[in-house]
Every structure is written in C-alpha cells, then in structure tokens.
Design goal:
heterodimer; A: 206 residues; 15% strand
Chain lengths: 206, 201
Amino acid sequence: MTPFVDVAFLILTFFIMATKFKPAEPVEIKTPNSVSTKDLPESDALQVTFDSTGRVFFGILSEKDPKIKYEVIKNMNTTRNLGLSETDMKNFVQTPAVGVPFSGLKQLLSLPVDDQKNLRQPGIPLDTLGGELYYWIRDAVSAFTGKQLKYLIKGDNGAKYPAFKQVLNAFKKNDIFKFQMITMLEDTPAGSELDIIRKRQKSGGK
Amino acid sequence: MASIEEGDGGHHKKGPGVKKAKKLSTRVDMTPMVDLGFLLITFFIFTTTMSSPTTMELFMPKDTDKDDEQNKAKESGALTILLSKDNHVYYYEGQLKEDASNFLSTNFGGIRKVIIDKKKAVIDAHQHDAGCEKIWAKNEGDKKSCLDKDLVIVIKPDEEATYKNTVDILDEMAISNIKRYAMVDLFPAERELIQKTEGGK
C-alpha cells in the first residue's frame, strides 16, 4: 500500500500548490467566452462588475500596495462627506468590491468583510453621464497617478447591453478609452483566419 | 485491519522464568491518515478551477459631435450588424435601402460566413493604392493589410441585446481578423425595422 499512498500524497501536494482561491465577490458572475488569450492582471487595476440584473460593483485591485486603496477611500470620505470612521476605511481595504450608493457606504463598511456579503447591495447608481461610478473611477485614477493602471470590465452573460454601455460611459467621461473585458478562454474555430495566423506564429516562433 | 497489539497483562507474572516481553509491532495503522488524504484530494479537485480567466481588449473612440472628425466609411466596404433580443442578428451591406430590401436576418452561427464573404468581396474589389502600401510598408511591413482597408464593420446592439452577444460579436471580429470596426447606437429607422421583423414572425 505504501507506493499507493505515496502517489496519493503527491497528488494532494500538487492540488494544494495549484489551487488559487478566488477572492470572494459580492455577486456570482458568469463571464462570456472569447478567443482572446491575454492574461488577467492581478494588481494595479480597477474592476467594474455588473450582474444580469444590471447592478454595478466597483473594486480596486492593488495587492502590491494596499495603501492606495486606503488613500482612495480617505479622499472620498473627506470630499464627499461620507462620515466613515477609521475602522470603516480599514474594512474598505479588505472589501473586494462595493455596490452601494454613497449614502449606503457607511452601512456597508461598518460591517466586517465576512458579513458584507449577507447585505444585499443595490449596485452603484448610474446614468448616461456615469453617475456615481464616474467619481469612483476619477478618485481611484488620481490615487494611482504614476502607475500603469488597467481597467477591467466583468459582465454577466445575461446582462443587457445598456448596462454595459453605461459602464463604458462612466469610463469615457474620465477620458479612458482602453478596456479589458474579463472572459473565459475558448478555442479558436478551426480554419478561421485567426486560427491560421496563430498557427503561423507558433511555427514561426520555433 | 491492522491493530496495535496490547500486552496481555504479562507484567504480573514476575519471576525468573518469565518470558521475554513480546516485541511490540512498530507498524502504525495508516488507514485514517490515508482516508484523510483522499478526502483532501477530493476537496482540492472539486475546488480547483483549471481554466484561468483571460481578458479581451477593447478600444473605444472619443465621442465627438464635430462632423469632420468622425471617421468616414466607404459605402462599398461597410457592413452593419445589428444585435437584438433572443440572439437574433440582422445585417445589411452599405447603406440601408429605403425599401429595406437589403436588411437581412441571421443568427450567431451564420454571421461568420457573412463577415468572411464581405471581407473577400472587399479584397477582390480592392484597387492598387500606392499611398497606403507605402505607409504600411514603413510601419508594419505588411502590404496585404491594404487590401481590406475599406472594410468597416459597424456593430449596433439594441437595448435587448445581452452582454454575451456583444462580446461574441467582438470575438467574431478577432476570429475573422477584422481591423476596423465600431460600436455605435441604432438609428430609429433600424429599430423600427427590427420591431417589424420580429412582429412578423
């Protein structure tokens, strides 16, 4: 039995190493598929998420430098009179994404991170001019000054196009025109032009 | 299963004729450990997601109201694709005719062929353009890119189209290697046509 157990533990070790736990998100999103192969950035990015009912969430990915996240909320607290306490702001640094209007931010952030997902978040209010999402993006961008910032959009399969358009509008109002949409990898259809190009690059690169 | 042998109370039999204490087995019962090991393997197999998410790049132009700043598309090379509810796709080439005779309906399975055919037609109709070739030879070194420079695909999702539809059609652009495409809003006339087509079914 010993060799068998050895192999079993080897497999176990592999899975422990290979597993990367997804950060908890306030909503479950099923992203569309695409043939794009570009990797997802892990840090220095703003992520706007919208679910199938059109609720919009905003998150800041700054693993490398959590101070930036703190700065964003601190600035917001003073400029927008949110009335957040020091603990609330510390909670924000841990929060993966927020989806409440400014008026509901205190209620959300007064909860510890683990309890936040029990609170139903109505989404950040949006309108054709970008709504409150515009201010979130603006303040986050200014906190990241001097860094290469990426803009991620994560939408649910079932979301309607107007929700996506309003998110784009909020970015456009901030003079941001380059986005990355989070998708799942899908095979390139055989025989298509992209397939031919990719195959050529592969064989040419060797 | 294996069990650890216990001394059978030999210690009260003291004396010179006492037997040597039975050698205790050094083998440990591994069954619970292996059980736990497999439980963990099962857990990790189920929680691991092997496919990692990727991202698709999207560039949007700056909104402009000035007519002269807007990109002009040649009529011969234009293809307009409209997305509507229930994964319906409508398309027309060039300008929309007044009697809407070139307004056609398809689905996501059929749109790829439409795009490929259009691209072929544009390449076939291409006339030698030295100016463009010079620019391309300087920048990219690929003169072929001039062949389809007139091809512009206009994507117009309506309110009922889903995000998945939008990403799918952008994906089609990548699959068919279309370099010039734009995402814009529908004209009222087009919206009416979609409603008419759907009502007629």
